[in-house]
Amino acid sequence: MISVLILTFNEERNLSACLESVSWSDDVLVLDSFSTDKTIEIARAAGVRVLQNRFVNFAEQRNFGLEHGGLKHEWVLHLDADELVTNEFKTEALRITRSGQKQAYRVPSKMMFQGCWLKYSGTYPTYQVRLGRRDRLRFKQVGHGQREDLPADCLGTLNEALLHYSFAKGMTDWTEKHRRYAAAEADHALKNASSGIDLAGLFFARDAVRRRRALKSLSTRLPCRAALRFFYMYLIRRGFLDGSAGFQYCRLLSHYESMIVSKTRELRQARAIEKLKS
After folding, report:
1. What are the two backbone dihedrals, phi and then psi, of residue 7, each rounded to the nearest 5 degrees?
2. How far apart are the C-alpha atoms of 191 and 141, rounded to whole Å?
3. HSE of 9 in the Cβ direction (CA atoms, 13 Å)?
4. SS3 category, 4
């Protein structure tokens, strides 16, 4: 069996569906960041355990749940409340954890927007490590998200994907969330400005995750990033095949890229002023 750890903050719109999708697990923990809506009521009504902890970042929150959540099983599936587990994913996860050949597994995600799966503009299959042994998998914060703190040879890859409903709480929530993400990405970019580009990973790596990370590192050094992001997603990644939803999503990603650029410039200027003062 697999324990499930779900991060929440004001997720009354999403939590019921997420909990229903993992009702097959006998150990579900909702780790909440002091929600002010009905998130806690929904979780308790569903009969799952609830733990609260102040949110610092995704990596620290997931690690807190692993270390203090009293999770029952050796394997833990990490979810956000706007993600759903399909029957196919459940079957593969239960099967692969019984063999236990790796310490953790990369999981693909299907971005859902306007009632459809964005097969092309949603950058499928984008992988995150979300299934791992309770005592082995830990996370480290990178930009606005988290990465696994395990070597690549300890990782496997699942075929079945989670369903990600990033827009379930509306466009305003998505925009506000990505403003926060942009600030985290800008801070990460400035801290790593002196590090080199992984050219071998960019051109020769067979590992899709390494290629994606190398491409992201390169993109932070390019001019006209917002326009290039749209061009890459809509034409090279064939986002146009997702129809009008793909076009709108690619525009949103372009806008997000412009927020990162603006925030990076703002932080750079602020730090330059601070250096002059000192």
Report:
1. -90, 135
2. 13
3. 11
4. strand
